[in-house]
Write a structure and sequence with these properties.
Keywords: TPR repeat. It comes from Solanum bulbocastanum (Wild potato). The chain is globular and about 85 Å long. Strands 1-2 form a two-stranded antiparallel sheet. The chain has 24 helices and 2 strands. By secondary structure, the chain is mainly alpha-helical.
Length: 601
């Protein structure tokens, strides 16, 4: 009986193959098709936190490697589907068709009829686990054809077939179904639904195997990676801690499993601003990789260590780490590999921050040359990520038009890639900022609108990043005289940022100020006064009054109070005075925030 395992495949997995499991004494084998999954960007620029490819690679081809001859064409009478021998036969035909490379459409037809046969042959009206397995196969074929929406109802039916209380076989089938359904939701960019499915799968696995089984650790890490993608760092940290505890018991010291866990934990800590803790995890992960002679993985960790040193302004140490990684990547992968380009981008960012602008620009140009002529095997996602990071540096050079060109190229590379909705939304949000900076407010508003729609659809409507994008869209609405829309956007941003960041956070305070100005323009003076009084109280009691925004807000409040004491002119205020003087600061802070969540060069 195969164990209940997480969806994990080796890094060198070949392109997508759909393999159909054999029956094992009537039991469902876990070698059924697994849906490939593309990574959405983690909230910060991901430093390859984990060598686990469970959330990124398709399932390997489990055939023997020899190309089989196409199966003979078989004509099947639909009326014979109630024959109990027909379901297994059709499923075998589907497997042979896929293995022969004849194409997924014919395999899909066989698998659909197999499922129908298993359903008709149910004993006492209770569907068998063979039905669940065949439905998993049907869904996997749909996904290989990029028909993800059609795979969803198939998998929703499949997870209703097993009864977990009936034993390990049923638990295995239910677990597999939930994980596959989660992957499919993720390919559609529906991270919230994806996470719920993974949680259900993990719960079933823990009930079947116990809380401390090593296979539970793999699923915990899988779910933690999903939480990182959704910017839910506290949940990700708790799961990663559990994974570390399990591997500490079941794995030898300095194991590859522990190294993978620590790299993910470092990414989470970095995203939360706990740089020293992140550094500790990376050093321990590096030691484990050195012990296991994983030279390229050590170099990847060196890049991550350099990122932490850069965040801590320890520039000399950062340069040393980057140069170590660069030497390894050039010797093992070649001078034109995207890994080399990614280190060039990191060095470009570092040299910009240390005032060496010529060196910074030179490294950007070197990286762009590599991305312009990628070596075979380079993915569109790698190039898009690199272009996005370089665009952030050109933004710092005060070259927004050049930054926009790079962002447009990155977005075009990802347009047809499933599972990249979050990445594209992030790029569109950055483009909105660029358009706003150069005064192209219509295009800025359109970019923000597209980003907001994708983030809503992807279940990220409660993240701090989403709140920041709403605030920026509100600013563009103001410039287009859409004051009512701006008020709605600022109100939604306030609710989200209060929940995610707290009322004292700089982003939340910026939204308060913008909302007060908008209420004033709409003639809602009392509401504007209430917000400004609340902000001043926060500054006086918790943040101090040294901030220059304090004096500005105090003056604005005094003006409103004075005006409210008179006969109020209901005419809206001039829009040039609508956004407070600190709004430029807010925009810069927002740009820096986005850089920290995945667009930092």
């Amino acid at each position: 009986m195969p164990g209940i395992v997480s969806l994990k495949t080796p890094p060198e997995a070949p392109p997508l193959r759909i393999s159909v499991s054999e029956e094992t004494n009537g039991r469902v084998d876990r070698s059924e098709p697994v849906i490939p999954k593309s990574n959405s960007p983690a909230p910060r620029r991901p430093p390859s936190p984990s060598p686990s490819t469970s959330r990124a690679k398709p399932s390997p081809d489990r055939s023997s490697g020899k190309k089989k001859s196409p199966p003979e064409k078989v004509v099947i009478d639909e009326s014979s589907l109630d024959n109990p021998d027909l379901g297994p036969f059709l499923l075998k035909l589907a497997r042979d068709t896929i293995a022969s490379g004849e194409g997924p459409n014919k395999a899909l037809d066989y698998a659909l009829r197999a499922a129908k046969s298993f359903e008709k042959c149910a004993v006492d009206g209770e569907p068998s686990l063979d039905l669940a397995m065949s439905l998993h196969v049907v869904a996997a074929i749909y996904c290989s054809l990029a028909r993800f929406e059609e795979a969803i109802p198939v998998l929703e039916t499949a997870i209703k077939v097993p009864e977990v209380s009936k034993g390990a076989d049923h638990a295995l089938a239910a677990f597999s179904g939930y994980m596959q359904l989660g992957d499919t939701h993720s390919m559609l960019g529906q991270l919230d639904r994806s996470i719920e499915c993974y949680k259900d799968g993990l719960k079933i696995q823990m009930e079947a195997l116990g809380d401390t089984d090593p296979r539970v650790a793999e699923t915990c890490r899988y779910l933690a990676e999903a939480h990182v993608q959704a910017m839910q760092f506290d949940e990700a940290e708790n799961l990663c801690k559990k994974t570390l505890e399990i591997h500490r018991v079941h794995s030898p010291p300095a194991s590859l499993e522990e190294a993978a866990d620590r790299r993910l934990m470092a990414l989470i800590c970095e995203a939360k601003g706990d740089y020293e803790v992140a550094l500790e995890h990376l050093v321990l992960a590096s030691m484990a990789m050195i012990a296991n002679a994983q030279e390229n993985e050590v170099a990847a960790i060196d890049v991550s260590i350099g990122n932490i040193y850069l965040s801590l302004s320890r520039f000399d140490e950062a340069v040393f780490s980057y140069q170590k990684a660069l030497t390894v990547f050039k010797s093992s992968k070649g001078d034109n590999h995207p890994s080399v380009a990614s280190v060039f981008v990191r060095l470009a960012d570092l040299y910009y921050k240390t005032g060496k602008l010529r060196e910074s620009r030179s490294y950007c140009e070197n990286a762009l040359r590599i991305y312009a002529k990628p070596v075979p095997g380079t993915t569109a996602e790698e190039i898009a990520c690199g272009l996005t990071e370089i665009s952030a540096i050109y933004e710092l050079f005060n070259e927004p038009e050049e930054a926009l060109k790079l962002l447009l190229k990155a977005m075009k590379l990802l347009e047809d890639k499933p599972g990249q909705q979050s990445t594209i939304a992030g790029i569109e949000a950055r483009m909105g900022v660029m358009f706003y900076m150069v005064g192209r407010y219509e295009e800025a508003h359109s970019s923000f609108e597209n980003a907001v729609a994708k983030l809503r659809a992807g279940g990220e409507r409660k993240s701090a990043f989403f709140g920041v994008v709403l605030n920026q869209m509100g600013l563009s609405s103001v410039q287009l005289f859409k004051i009512d829309e701006a008020a709605e956007l600022f109100e939604e941003a306030r609710r989200i940022l209060e929940q995610e960041c707290g009322p004292c956070h700089q982003d939340t305070l910026g939204v308060y100020s913008n909302l007060a100005a908008t209420y004033d323009a709409l003639g809602r003076v009392e509401d504007a006064i209430e917000i400004l009084e609340y902000v001043l109280k926060l500054r006086e009691e918790k943040l101090g009054t040294a901030n220059p925004d304090f004096d500005d807000e105090k003056k604005r409040l005094a003006e409103l109070l004075k005006e409210a004491g008179k006969s109020r002119n209901k005419k809206a205020k001039s829009l040039e005075n609508l956004i407070d003087p600190s709004s430029k600061t807010t925009k810069k802070e927002t740009s820096r925030k986005w850089s920290a969540f995945g667009f930092r060069s």
